[in-house]
Write a structure and sequence with these properties.
By secondary structure, the chain is mainly beta. Helix content is 15%, strand content 38%.
């Protein structure tokens, strides 16, 4: 007989180990049938009629493995493959032993197919393997909402690893879980593989992301006292609707759902229902796998009131009766669990203010089910009075210790006071040198009655480089920049330089402030500046109007109390205001002395012409309880300023201004603020209040309006032609090259301004980006200016006016009396002066026809009203990578005739 071979394959083992359902696109093990040689039996001759002879019983013979060989190995060594099984040369071969060997090979997940052949005659067992391919690449397809950088870290498979089906299934599950965390529960992942040469494979994950799973509906069962809408309002999760398209809380999130249950409990506990409980909370995926329906089953229970309320003080300095009388909880009020925590914090704060830093306050609540009341007893445990052992400053590398230490309102050896510690924290925060929300930490000292205060600071950039740009109908493009160091050399000094440049104005300012002169509570500072204004459109040689102010200011400030300070200042200005005499001056008396022509230049501007020395003495009273100077969230800031001009110099006036702002933490991240300001100026000199000394309102003060866009102004409206047939409407105003006529803002002697703003919190991602949006309303007005003498000048056609030097024709002129007032004709209009009928001047030059340079016009005085101007809008502060960025979008609800509005404004800066 020839040798027999028994073959056992891995097909049924592979199916059992790798799962019942194969992944789409992955190769399956090649099935093979168990082959066993048929045992032929030789026929035995039998005698006729004789009973059949019984077959001899087979004799079992042991099959010993004499040799083990491996076939098909490419990357793995044969010895390594043999090491995975228990069979060895000399072992007895059996079907059961072969089965165990195949299971061991399957568990390695290294082979796509494998089998065992055994030749009983030779005793040679052969392991036939087909190795799993090596992964060449991992490819993601269809991931539009989630970046590959987020998905790849979730995948365990990687290039140059051995491909296995179990790892692919695990990676599919991880990707689906990642999408679930993104709120996409309908996402599916289909793995595919592309075979390459050299037994390599590309693994492709085809992803169908599906829509973000929303909360389609929130059902509440069991609530009788409060409506579904009230309870949904207490939750963070919102139902998906057209009105909630901007909210990120409409997506399903299991963690948010757990938080909502906590909020529901807190809602009922604050409304007097201590027995409230949530029986079940179920989130069901809709049949289309797109959205969720959340159902809460609740039990409200009975409502309770406060019963007996008292405080037991074990501190010798506090009377139990006195503390009880100050409680905000009153017997008979509805039970509110949040009041317990508020009272505990208040009692601990009170004890801390008197030096008991570690006083423990314990609340004991007794439930009276019969009359549905809750008795509460607050026990203030005995504790030693605590003294400050040390004040430690850590983390400052640039800022000197004394700069931080001098802001502390408490020193070593003092009795501990939580109020003083909180105030110290606010003062250090207001410096703006360190991290936001800085807190002074309290650490136990060397004994129970000692405490160490630690200022663990993280220094932030204190330099500011600010760049801003805007557009105005008056000044076209506006550019400004400033550089400021608020902690110069780490000494707390402030040094600044600012430059502004626009179509008509340029200014520069240098400032310096020493907050502590000789380490005493005296602040000293000065400013040196230069301001130029002209209408030459970048070309001073073409300017017809120019104002130049050069000066310096000196400031001295001293604190009167912890929250009140006094600031004195002195300012000395030299001011020059000029007009182009060829265009705006004329010789009224014929004596060769030219004077400003109000008909052309305007009365208020003519009054302001000349050189003046201004000597101004001022004083300010400031009240400040803000918790931060840069980004306050609570506190008040108010100031009253008085300025007197006339201590020497050429101008005399008295000016008063008041400013006040209040900030509130509204809870849930909302910050509210309300600010008001106003001012009045009175001129007691011969000249009164000049144009350049009045108050102006517009962009920068009241949003929604242009620069100097609010308040009194003269609007000059032109006739359509020299015959005076029709006056043009405001939309038809002619631009005749006299830029100043487009915005004759006169300002006012009085103004007021109020702003209300609410900062809106965003999600954690937006907060990390530094986005702080807000909504606001601005209300204000500037008014109280004497009505100017208006001009109506419809000049007849055919008249001529003489040429002046340089070939520039004069504008419209009128005959005047001895006082310089225009003479009016029978028609009520000014009588033209210097009018000639000949087109040829006496010197032979060409006279210009009247109206060629300035068409006939009518002036109107508008806007001099205390009626409020109102604007509303939204703004966003963004701490962008290139610096602080502020955008405002505002629309006016109420304005007056002549006001100039503006929809959009922004500015940008950076820090270093």
């Amino acid at each position: 007989m020839g040798s027999k071979t028994r073959t056992i394959t891995a097909s049924h083992y592979a199916t059992a180990l790798l799962g019942c359902t194969m992944l789409a696109g992955l190769p399956t093990a090649v099935a093979a049938q168990d082959a066993a040689p048929a045992q032929q039996q030789e026929a035995q001759p039998q005698e006729t009629g004789a009973p059949p002879a019984s077959a001899p019983a087979p004799q079992a013979q042991a099959q010993v493995i004499r040799q083990i060989s491996v076939s098909g190995a490419q990357r793995l060594e044969p010895e390594t493959i043999v090491s995975y099984i228990q069979l060895r040369p000399g072992s007895e071969y059996s079907a059961a032993a072969a089965d165990q060997a195949l299971i061991a090979l399957a568990e390695t997940e290294l082979f796509a197919d494998f089998s065992i052949d055994f030749n009983p005659a030779s005793g040679v067992m052969t392991i036939n393997v087909v190795e799993n391919p090596i992964i060449n690449r991992i490819i993601l397809e269809g991931n539009n909402r989630v970046d590959a950088e987020e998905i790849l870290p979730e995948i365990n498979l990687s290039p140059r690893q051995i491909f296995t089906r179990s790892r692919v299934r695990a990676d599919v599950a991880r990707i689906i879980e990642l999408y679930k965390r993104q709120g996409r529960f309908a996402a599916t992942v289909e793995p595919q593989m592309v075979m390459l040469d050299q037994n390599r494979v590309d693994v492709i994950f085809e992803i169908s992301e599906g829509p973000r799973s929303k909360v389609r509906q929130i059902n509440i069962i069991g609530n009788e006292v409060f409506s579904d809408g009230e309870l949904r309002g207490a939750m963070v999760t919102r139902e998906d609707s057209l009105l909630a398209f901007l909210s990120s809380n409409t997506s399903y999130d299991p963690d948010r759902m757990a938080y909502d249950q906590q909020l529901l409990r807190e809602f009922y506990l604050t409304e007097g229902y201590p027995d409230f409980r949530i029986i079940s909370a179920v989130a069901e995926l809709t049949p289309d796998r797109r959205d969720f329906i959340i159902t809460y089953v609740v039990e409200e229970g009975e409502r309770f009131r406060w019963g007996d309320v008292e405080v037991i003080s074990q501190l010798r300095d506090f009377s139990s009766e006195a503390l009880t009388s100050q409680l905000t909880i009153e017997t008979g009020d509805w039970f509110n669990s949040s009041q317990i925590e508020d009272v505990e914090e208040g009692l601990a704060e009170t004890a801390g203010a008197f030096g008991y830093a570690f006083a423990n306050v314990d609340a004991r609540v007794v439930r009276n089910a019969e009359d549905r009341t809750m008795d509460v007893t607050f026990t203030v445990a005995d504790a030693p009075r605590v003294y400050v052992e040390a004040v430690e400053i850590n983390g400052n590398t640039l800022t000197q210790d004394k700069v931080i230490r001098r802001e502390f309102r408490i020193a070593e050896g003092d009795v501990f006071s939580s109020l003083q510690v909180r105030r110290s924290t606010a003062r250090i925060n207001s410096l703006g040198y360190f991290q936001e929300n800085f807190e002074v930490e309290q650490v136990e000292g060397s004994s129970p009655d000692r405490i160490i205060l630690q200022a663990n600071v993280q220094e932030e950039p204190t330099g500011e480089l600010s760049l801003s740009a805007g557009f105005s109908s008056l000044e076209s493009f506006i550019f400004s920049g400033s550089i400021r160091q608020n902690n110069f050399r780490g000494r707390g000094q402030t040094v600044g330089l600012s430059v502004n440049y626009s179509r008509f104005s340029q200014s520069a300012n240098i400032s310096f402030t020493e907050p502590k002169v000789f380490d005493r509570d005296i602040a000293l500072g000065f400013d040196v500046y230069r301001q130029d204004f002209n209408n030459g459109f970048f070309d001073r040689d073409q300017a017809t109007y120019e104002q130049t102010t050069t000066g310096f200011g000196l400031r001295v400030g001293v604190p009167l109390t912890e929250y009140i300070s006094l600031l004195g200042r002195y300012t000395l200005n030299y001011q020059e205001i000029t007009l182009d005499e060829q265009q705006f001056f004329r010789d009224f008396d014929g004596d060769g002395v030219a004077q400003c022509e109000p008909l052309v230049a305007g009365r208020y501007l003519c009054d302001a012409l000349g050189d003046r020395l201004q000597s101004i003495l001022g004083v300010s009273f400031n009240y400040n309880t803000l918790n931060s100077r840069l980004r306050p969230t609570r506190g008040t800031n108010a100031s009253l300023s008085l300025d007197f001009a006339g201590l020497g110099g050429d101008t005399q006036y008295a000016r008063a201004r008041i400013n006040a702002a209040r900030y509130w933490n509204l809870g849930s991240g909302f910050i509210g603020s309300l600010s008001v300001e106003g001012g009045y100026i009175y001129g007691y000199g011969d000249e009164g209040v000049l144009l350049n000394e009045r108050f102006f309102l517009g962009e920068g003060q009241i949003r929604g309006f242009d620069i100097r866009g609010v308040g009194p102004r003269v609007v000059r409206r032109f006739y359509e032609d020299a015959n005076g047939d029709r006056i043009l409407t405001e939309d038809e105003l002619l631009d005749i090259g006299n830029e100043r006529n487009q915005d004759d803002a006169l300002g006012g002697n009085a103004y007021y301004l109020a702003r209300a703003e609410i900062e809106i919190p965003l999600g954690s991602g937006a907060r990390e980006l530094g986005l702080r949006p807000s909504v606001f309303i601005d209300v204000g007005s500037v008014f109280d200016v004497e009505t100017p003498q208006l001009t109506q000048s419809p000049l007849p056609t055919g008249l001529f006016i003489p040429q002046l030097e340089g070939g520039l024709p004069t504008f419209a002129q009128a005959q005047r009396d001895a006082a310089g007032n225009p003479l009016l004709g029978d028609n009520g209009l000014p009588l033209p002066a210097l009018v000639v009928t000949s087109p040829i001047a006496p010197d032979g030059s060409q006279n210009a026809p009247i109206g060629t340079q300035l068409p006939p016009f009518v002036e109107e005085f508008v806007g001099n009203s205390a009626t409020p101007r109102i604007s509303v809008g939204v703004g966003v502060n963004w701490n962008s990578p290139f610096g602080p960025f502020r955008v405002d979008l505002a629309t006016t609800l109420l304005d007056q005739r002549g006001d100039e509005t503006k929809l959009f404004s922004f500015n940008v800066g950076t820090q270093f």
